[in-house]
Prior knowledge:
Blueprint: E1 4-9, H1 14-33, E2 41-46, E3 58-59, H2 60-68, H3 77-86, E4 97-98, H4 102-110, H5 117-129, H6 138-147, H7 152-159, H8 162-177, E5 185-188, E6 192-195, H9 200-216
Parallel strand pairs: 1-2
Antiparallel strand pairs: 1-5, 3-4, 5-6
Amino acid sequence: MSLSIDVISDVVCPWCFIGKRRLEAALELYRVRNPAAATPQVAFHPFELNPDLPREGISRADYIAKKFGARGYSAHDRLVGIGAQLGIPFAFDKIARQPNTLAAHALIERSRGSGVQGAVKEALMKAFFVEGLDLTDSQTLVRIAAEAGLERAAAEACIADEALRRTVAEEEDKARRMGVQGVPFFIFNNRLAVSGAQEPETLLEAMLEAKKESTAA
Length: 217
């Protein structure tokens, strides 16, 4: 039985990008520790940091001013340093628009059954944090998802699918009802939860403990 890992996060959350890298490192530690074990199954779930933003998003400068006040972009200095250590070249200065991420989450949800969910998630985060692309633009979203492996027709249909957006919003509401208030949030084998972009060793411990509890049950 393979280990299941559910990751609740947002594509415009820098700590979620850091958490993704740390999870990848933890998975490598797990593989070394358990070379004969099945590869853990990772699934990504939606969480919007700013669900009330309009679909067209808002100016990034306005967003930063409202969120950080006088600190402004200097609030990102620590993130830039951590990102550099993990191979994430954060380029916050390139971001011009703070998006509503419901459409991006719809694409991630649609890609789950296609086996490319992780790639689509990665591509969207890289597009935002490294390339500064506008994730409110439908054609940009379609191109990102298609280049990550989702069929272009499926991506285009997804962007126009209001029912899928409602499904994503409902899944997010479910996470909030579970008590998730901040992301990233990791759930291992539906038994053990870890909140925050914890170090790989901490995530590995959670993996091993969840596996142990599942075996004992």
